[in-house]
Amino acid sequence: MNVPSDLLYAESHEWLRIAGDEGTVGISDHAQHELNDVVYVELPKVGATVEAQAQVCVVESVKAASDIFSPMSGTVTAVNEALAANPALINTDPHGAGWIYKMKLSDPSQTSVLKTPAQYTTQLGA
Amino acid sequence: MSDAASLKKTPLHDEHARLGAKLVDFGGWSMPVQYTGILDEHHAVRTALGVFDISHMGQFFAEGPGATAWLQHMLANNVEKLDVGECQYTFLLTEKGGVIDDLIVYRLGDERYLLVVNAGKIDEDFAWMQSHLGDGVKFENASDSYAGLAVQGPKSAQLFDAFFGGKYSRPARNEILRIEIDDSVYFIARTGYTGEDGFEVFCAADRAVKSWNDILERGAQFGIKPCGLGARDTLRLEMCYPLNGSDLSPDTTPLEAGLAFFVDLQKPEFIGRDALIAQKQAGIARRLVPFKMNGASPPPRSHYGVFKNGEKITETTSGSLSPTLKIGIGMAYVPTGIARIGEEIEIDIRGRKFTATIQKKPLHQPGAAS
Hints:
The structure holds 2 protein chains of 2 kinds.
Chain A (H helix, E strand, L loop, with lengths): L7 E2 L4 E6 L2 E6 L1 H7 L2 E5 L6 E2 L4 E7 L3 E5 L4 E6 L2 H4 L3 H4 L8 E5 L11 H9 L1
Antiparallel strand pairs in A: 1-2, 2-3, 3-9, 4-6, 5-8, 6-7, 8-9
Chain B lengths: L12 H6 L3 E5 L2 E6 L3 H10 L2 E4 L4 E6 L3 H8 L12 E7 L5 E11 L2 E6 L4 H10 L6 E4 L4 E7 L3 H9 L11 E6 L2 E6 L8 E7 L3 H12 L5 E3 L1 H10 L34 H10 L3 E8 L11 E4 L2 E12 L4 E9 L8 E6 L2 E7 L12
Parallel strand pairs in B: 3-13
Antiparallel strand pairs in B: 1-2, 3-9, 4-7, 4-8, 5-6, 6-7, 9-12, 10-11, 11-12, 14-17, 14-19, 15-16, 15-18, 16-17, 18-19
Helix pairs in contact in B: 2-7
């Protein structure tokens, strides 16, 4: 599985890319592989306040609906509208074009609950 | 859910693992839900060829001078309409006309039958039938000694000919061929659960791995793919074929499910007949109907609320994205008054209502451009 080294990971398989006080969120390569064909993404609303580890949106494969949990607290600033027409971007490019939402982080320093790439790789290997 | 170690395995379990299948608990069996992906496998069956492991399904044999009379009593359809070598879809019903199981009965001889039943119902069906056993019938549960493979798709006939061309002619739809290869018996039926042309092969469990690999090897030229239960479900739902336990249950009758064609009320007697006649006379209050979402929506799934004029009228029994139609589809029992093609309903998906329209069956016509 591809675990890019510039991202942080939640135990529930979301990734977070931090740039200043902005975070971009998606699901990991492992998660997209487990879900397989993503056919629908219920995006969060821009402006919504989200709490760390709380359900924020839903990604649906042919077989099941999976809750996505926000890796950190903050306010949603943008959503990936391209997923409405092409939800499979999550499968083809989970860490890039398949991003789900961007958020203004309430406190960019509170990353301790997240895993480093090495820790996440260990989790996947377990 | 059962503990992984306690799950039953088909003779093809190691092959599935080797092919990288994602294995899930299906009614107590460890079964492949997908290999490469449900959409990919679905399209392979609609456009070319797929092969499914159906070894989890049950095989019963009923034989003896009393076999026909007994099955006439036990089953809702009429086995006397079958010539030797033909099969029909039928039901085991409760006295109240509810569905215990839906199955295929194959007439192998004048008084010899093969019944293929749902995996999760093998023990219950066998116990029910055994407890009603008629005179002059030898009834056997051969499920453990048989494997089953379903080869489905428009190129099925070409694959059959690649195997048997010149030696055996293809059975017609709903016919079954019995052949022997290396002293082992194979039943090859022109049946399936996908709506496409195809064959279901029942063979000795110890021939399963060779048969599976031979089919994959010979099928390669036709683009065959191993297919899991995920694609099996989307394929059957596009055809509006019911899934027992979801669309059928002891609380629903074949008349409500729109399957009266497979029930012969002209037969003088069978278990459930009186209740079905009474239901027909009283008027059938609800009908199982297929629906299609009117636009983009999350895929409907089973047990989602169905609304009409703001009121909840029922729940869906099945639902999925249709890989062929590329829109959400499903089925639900709705009051007869609104069980009309073109009637609009709403499906509650996580608290949001999306409109859908009742359709005629099937939702997809095989062979139609897609």
